[in-house]
Amino acid sequence: MLEYIEFYKIPILSGTAAGILLSFLGIFVVLRKTSLFGVTMSQAAGAAVIISFMLGIHGEIFIIAATSLMMLPFFIMTGRKSKFSGAILTGGFVFFTSAGHLITVFGGNVSNHITRAFFGDILTVTQEEWDHLTLPVFMMFPVFIYFLPYFKIVVFDRDHAAIRGLNIRFLEAAYFLMLVFILSISIRLFGSLFSIAQLILPALAVLHLSRSVNFALLYAMLFSITGTLTGFIVSFYPFQAGNETLNLPTTSSIIMVLSFGTVLLFGTNRLKYYLIKITGNIFFRYGSHKNSSEK
Amino acid sequence: MKNIVLKNLSAGYSGSAIIENINFTISQTESVLIEGPNGAGKTTLLKTIAGILNPVSGSLNSDFKSIGYVPQIRNIDDTFPASVEECLQMSFIPNYIERVKNLFFHFLNQGKDPVLAEQKKQIEDSLSKIGMLHKRKTPLRDCSGGELQRVLIARALIHKPDLLILDEPMSFLDRTAKSSLIKFLKELHAKKGPALIMTVHDDIKDNLFNRKILVENRNVTEIKSRKRKQS
After folding, report:
1. Closest residue of A to B49, CA-based?
2. Measured between alpha carbons, how far is B151 from B70 in angstroms, rounded to an integer?
């Protein structure tokens, strides 16, 4: 096991770092109720990755710029809270997914490109990619910490933020660009399913357990790290299937671990909530349910 | 005396007016009740007065330097992970240069950060005013509708506003909580407090407000006006 970890230290480190950043941004994606926007953006970034593979453009700037251009109209629409935004984002989701598929027909190895854009190949992250992407990824941490108090204020109450003199449009643009940046790099390296899972699942799992945004960020980080490392370990263990020795695919193992963890944390809480409703709080003492029913 | 003057003002969203031809002046000694049915444009008018929305046309001149705004409770996500204290804390916009300076000061003076200490004092004062100091560590999700409403009022009062705008604060309150809120606003306004503008969609039988304005059918009409007794 240790030799696996030593050999794959770059994929492990890069996957964990990207997972932490995605889970941080995911807290705000879920709090803003824009999960569908995040998912659609990941498909747009996936299509941009396929285009970049096909054209042989290796720089991330192309992917980031293409994703920003594709998602900008959706971002403006979500800000205006159109009643059709959910339906339009779903349309965008299927459009970008199919567009990515169609584009591959015009060049390159279709199944390789599709598989890489969707499922990624976390174990093949190279030293060159690590050297190239480490700095921008790690630079995002201080940028995120700088913007964190502002994001909290804007997400909690936009009107109050406006009265306090915050430039909402600038902050929204900063949030959008950070999301595009980290999603594009993550999808380029690890595929869109890994990125969506790290964006949404940690936030979903921990938000109801957290008393403050800072705690939510801490719990999401721990959840993401634990899920990623457990997924790696699960995929490193060989198992017998008939006469063959097989290893589970790493990206999917990480996603499955994160999903089970989410079901465990979120599902247990929901189960507890319904038990309280049915039994009239005989087994649990939990003030929030009493109060939330008052509202 | 500070006042706010609205002249031929039209208020609305994205360039299209919801209410038009608004003309009135509110001074610091006044308390104004805005009535009207749901969807008449009361919130749009309040947001325009508060400076959250730009007027579609006309002019709005305000001498009020600090405005407190209490939004409708249904626009607040009560599942947001924050305690009562943190909700008020979010009213202070971070100033990083000041924070770095204070970080050094903090170490040099054994745990005294003047900015944080001042903010804490302001938060505690504001929570005391509305009788929520004992609940400062309570998560927002554990607060009842009435408590959340009071927290939002405390947040609006934290910067000692000249004008306090309340958007349907009675909506989720029972009769006792409603009269307690009216009593609180009366006391606040009587002690040379802020000018008050409040919306409701049903009539309030109380003499707290010296003016009543009706928003209906895209128009704004003054339906009652009396001079406030000088205390």
Report:
1. A163
2. 9
Tell me the CB-side half-sphere exposure of residue B25, using CA atoms within 13 A: 8
Sheet holding B31-35, edge to edge: B67-70, B163-167, B195-200, B31-35, B211-216, B219-225
Enumerate residues 6+ apart whose C-beta is below 8 A from B210.
B30, B31, B32, B225, B226, B227, B228
Q: What is the largest CA-CA distance in chain A?
A: 69
Distance CA A107, CA A87 (A): 32
Cβ contact A288–B75 (<8 Å): no
Asked if A216 and A40 touch (Cβ cutoff 8 Å), the reply is: no
Q: How confident is residue A267, by pLDDT bands cut at 50, 70 and 90?
A: confident
Q: Which of A159, A207, A286 to mutate to test the interface with B (most CBs of B within 10 A)?
A: A159
Structure tokens, A161: 């933020």
Kindly give, in sequence order, each residue whose CB lies less than 8 Å from that of residue A263, ignoring residues fewer than 6 positions away: none
Residues of A in contact with B141 (CB under 8 A): 288, 291-292
- A31 interaction partners in chain B (CB closer than 8 Å): 77, 80
Handedness of CA B117, B122, B123, B128 (dihedral sign): positive
Q: CB neighbours of A180 closer than 8 A, spacing ≥ 6?
A: A41, A45, A64, A67, A68, A71
pLDDT tens readout for residues B210-226: 888 888 888 888 876 66
pTM of the model: 0.83
> How far, in whole angstroms, is CA A262 from its chain's centroid?
14
What does DSSP assign to residue A207?
Answer: G
Q: Report whether pLDDT(B142) > 70.
A: yes
pLDDT digits (tens, 9 = 90+) for B31-62: 888 888 888 888 999 999 998 888 999 889 88
Reduce the DSSP state of residue B70 to 3 states and report it. strand
The residue among B213, B176, B217, B183 whose CA lies nearest residue B198 is B213
Supply the mean pLDDT for chain B: 83
8 Å CB contact of A156 and B77: yes
Q: Which pLDDT band, with edges at 50, 70 and 90, does A109 fall under? A: low
In 3D space, the residue among A179, A171, A129, A137 whose CA is nearest the CA of residue A154 turns out to be: A171
Please count the other Cβ atoms lying within 10 Å of the Cβ belonging to residue B185.
Answer: 22
Burial of B31 (0-12, 13-18, 19+ CB in 10 A): buried
Helices A268-279 and A287-294 sit at what angle, rounded to 10 degrees? 70
